[in-house]
Amino acid sequence: MYKALENLKPAAVWRFFDEILRIPRPSKHEEKITRYLIEYGVNKGFETLTDNVGNVLIRKPATAGNENRPWVCLQSHIDMVCEKNSDKIFDFQKDAIVPVLKGEWLYADGTTLGADDGIGVATALAILDSTDIEHGPIECLFTVDEETGLTGASALKTDWLKSRILLNLDDEDLGEICVGCAGGIDTVMEIDYNHVSVEPETEAFTIKVSGLKGGHSGDDINKGLGCANKLINRILWSMSEELGMRLSLLDGGNLRNAIAREAYAVVTVPKANAEKLQHAVKQFEKAVQYEFRSTEPDLKVSAEKAEMPQYLLEKDMQDKLLNALYACAHGVLAMSREIPNFVETSTNLASIKMDDKKIHICTSQRSSVESAKHAAAAKIEATFRLIGAKVTHSDGYPGWTPNPDSKVLKIADDAYRRLFNEEPTIRAIHAGLECGLIGEKYDGMDMISFGPTMRGVHSPEERLEIATVEKFWRHVIEILKNI
Predict the structure, then answer these.
(1) Exposure on the CB side of residue 393, measured as CA atoms within 13 A
(2) DSSP E strands: which ranges in 194-305?
(3) Which of 175, 246, 395, 399 would disulfide-bridge 183, Cβ 3.0–4.6 Å?
C-alpha cells in the first residue's frame, strides 16, 4: 500500500482506493478498471454483468434475515479527469497515480487524484467485500465515461437494474445530500483557415497564461476563477490592434468540463514593436493579477522569445477569431429565481486547439432549466456563426428534478442527524450527475447523491479531506441498515 494511505480509516475503503490509484482509467479508456471489477466480482462469487459499453454491475445477496428488503443500487463512475501540471511528465494511460499526504488532505503528485469518483468506487467495493454490515440485497453499478459525456449512463439498459432506490456516491461535500442537478450540452466549433507566410523584419514570442486554479466547470463556475482562454485572448486582441501582432498558434484548456488553467500563443510582431510587446504583457499581467487578487494568487502572464513559426493565420481570420473569442460568453449566465445563491445557467469556454487546417473550439453549457440550456447553446452558436464557423451540439443530458417526497432522502437525513448530531444540507447542484439519465431510464427511481469532501476537482489541485471519508462510510452503512 502507498505510504500516504497506511493507517487511514476505514481500512477497507483505503485498501481498495490504493488498488484503484494504480489502475489507469482515463475517460473512454476504462478497459483496465473494468477488467479489475469483473475479476473481483467473479472471484467473490457474485453475479457480475457487463454491457457493450463497459458498464459493470455486481450483485450481492442480502445479509441473513434481510432478504425481503428492497434492492438498493450503489452507483459510481470508474473514469477520471486526467489533468496534470505542465512540468509533470506523466502518461495517464500507463502510469499509476501517486498520492501525497498534506496535513488533513490527500493530493496527487502533480496530477488529478481521481478521488472523483475513485473514492465512490472504493466505497462500493468495500461494501461488497464486507461480512459484518447489515443490508438488504444490493447491486453496485460502475459506469464508464461520466466525465466526457455520461455515455455509460446514457447507454444503460432499461431492464438491467433490479433496484428502485439508488445511492449515487459522487458528491463532493460531506454533510450535503444532493437531490437534483443541472442538465448540460456541448457546443463545438470548427473553423477553416489558410496559412500565409511570415512577414519579414519580425520577431516571434510565446505568450503564456499560467498559474490559474482551474476547477469544475459546474461547481466552480461562480467562484470568480480566471479562464486562461479568455485572459490570453484579451492580450492578443489588444496587441493585434495596437502592435501589429500576428498569430501563428493558439492553444488553451483541455477538457470540456474543466475551467481552462493554462493557455499559450505563438505570435510575431515587427521588430520595432518587440519591446512594446514585452511591456504590454507585463502591464497586462499586473492588471489581471489585481483583478483576480483574491481568487487567483498565482496567476502569471509571460512573453518569451520563440523560434520563428513556419506560417501565420491570414489577417482577416485572425481578426474574426479574436473578436469571436472576446464576444464568446463564459461564466454564469443566470442565477436561480427560486433558490438563493444557486446558479441556474452557465457556459464554459473550455478549449481552443489548432491543427494545420482547422481551429477547434469546445464549450459546454449547463442549466437546471431545459429551455435555458438550449438558449445558452444557441447564444454560443450565434457568436461563432458570425465568423463562418461550423457549429455542432452534443446530444446533451437531462437535469435531475428534486423529489420532495423522496423516502431515501428522509432515511439519509435521519441517519446523518443520528450519527453526527447535526443537520445535513439538502440541495441541488449546478454540476451534471448521472442521476438525471438514470432517472430518465428508470421512472420512479428514488435517488440521492452524497460523498466525502473534495476540492479542486478536475485540476491537479484535486484533494480529498481524509477525515470525511470515514464519516461518509458510516453514513452509507447507516442508510443501508435502515432501508
Answers:
(1) 17
(2) 195-196, 202-210, 246-252, 263-270, 300-305
(3) 399
Backbone angles phi, psi at 363, to 5 degrees: -130, 160
Q: Residue 395: is its pLDDT beyond 90?
A: no
Q: Is there a catalytic annotation at residue 381?
A: no
| Active-site hit among 79, 147, 220, 296 | 79
Contact between residue 163 and residue 151 where contact means Cβ atoms under 8 Å apart: no
Q: Are strands 165-168 and 446-449 parallel, antiparallel or unpaired?
A: parallel
Closest C-alpha to 222, from 296, 332, 299, 297? 332
Element (H, E) at 171: none
Q: Which residue has the cell 466552480?
A: 220
Nearest Cα neighbor of 448 from 182, 173, 171, 115 is 171
Measure the CA–CA gap between 279 and 284, rounded to whole angstroms. 9
C-alpha distances out from residue 402 to 39, 123, 246, 370, Å? 36, 25, 51, 14
Note the maximum CA span of the chain. 85
- Output DSSP code: residue 151: H
For the stretch 172-215, pLDDT in tens is 999 999 999 999 999 999 999 999 999 999 999 999 999 999 98
Q: Are strands 312-313 and 195-196 parallel, antiparallel or unpaired?
A: antiparallel
Residue 143, SS3 per DSSP: strand
Amino acid at the residue 157: K
Tell me what pLDDT residue 431 has. Answer: 84
Residue tagged 443530458 (cell numbers) = 397
Q: Are strands 358-367 and 183-192 parallel, antiparallel or unpaired?
A: antiparallel
**Which one-letter amino acid corresponds to residue 5?**
L
Instruction: Classify residue 330 as exposed, middle or buried by CB count within 10 Å of its CB (0-12, 13-18, 19+).
Output: buried
What CA–CA distance (Å, rounded) separates 3 from 99? Answer: 9
Q: Which three cell numbers stand for residue 97?
A: 497515480
Give the list of residues 6+ apart from residue 226 with CB closer than 8 angstroms, or none.
209, 212, 213, 288, 292, 295, 296, 299
Asked whether residue 281 carries a pLDDT value surpassing 90, the answer given is yes
The radius of gyration of the chain's CA atoms, rounded to the nearest angstrom, is 24
Q: Is-catalytic flag, 146?
A: yes
Q: Which residue has the higher pLDDT, 70 or 369?
A: 70
Contact between 379 and 364 (Cβ < 8 Å):
no
Out of 146, 262, 381, 434, pick the active-site residue.
Answer: 146
**Cβ(377)–Cβ(185) below 8 Å:** yes
CA proximity to 218, closest of 263, 166, 180: 180
Q: Quick one: pLDDT at residue 483? A: 96
- Bridge partner residues of 363 (DSSP): 187, 349
> In whole angstroms, what separates CA 48 from the centre of its chain?
28
Query: Which residue type, as a one-letter code, is found at position 321?
Result: L
For residue 351, give Cα distances in angstroms to 46, 253, 433: 43, 4, 22
Task: Please give the Cα distance from 74 to 150 (Å, whole number).
Answer: 17
First-to-last alpha carbon distance for the chain, in angstroms, is 34
